[in-house]
């Protein structure tokens, strides 16, 4: 059960972080944000990223072996990176339809999934 909680919290945290890092690139399409300066954009993104921590920190504490979780530190990190890529892919396909996902991207992501396999292999 701790594995599932950890993964769900990591998905939520990465969703907020993806919006904080890349969501502002769509602000030009929104009337009320189109004239904001860089400092305003940074502050809005920082505010969004704050919510990422509300999910990331508990995910790491619940999932880490030293706190009774199922994952080592390396396993947590690799799991988080793959979740980040999956969330990013979905975000890109939904909000940045002009971006294309090419074969070399998929191959690279495939290698990252292989990395997860090898990290978790006992």
UniProtKB/TrEMBL annotation:
The keyword Oxidoreductase does not apply. It comes from Anditalea andensis. Keywords: Membrane, Transmembrane, Transmembrane helix. This is Membrane protein. Pfam families: DMT_6. InterPro entries: DUF486 (IPR007437). The keyword Signal does not apply. PANTHER family: DMT FAMILY PROTEIN (PTHR38482). The chain crosses the membrane at residues 36-55, 76-96, 102-120. It comes from the Bacteria.
């Amino acid at each position: 059960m701790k594995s599932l909680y950890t993964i769900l919290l990591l998905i939520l945290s990465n969703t907020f972080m993806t919006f904080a890092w890349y969501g502002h690139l769509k602000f030009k399409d929104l009337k009320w944000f189109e004239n904001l300066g860089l400092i305003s954009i940074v502050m809005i993104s920082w505010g969004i990223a704050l919510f990422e921590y509300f999910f990331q920190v508990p995910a790491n504490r619940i999932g880490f072996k030293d706190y009774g979780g199922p994952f080592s530190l390396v396993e947590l990190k690799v799991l988080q990176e793959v979740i980040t890529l999956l969330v990013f892919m979905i975000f890109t396909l939904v909000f940045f339809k002009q971006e294309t996902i090419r074969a070399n991207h998929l191959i690279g992501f495939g290698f990252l999934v292989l990395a997860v396999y090898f990290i978790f292999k006992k």
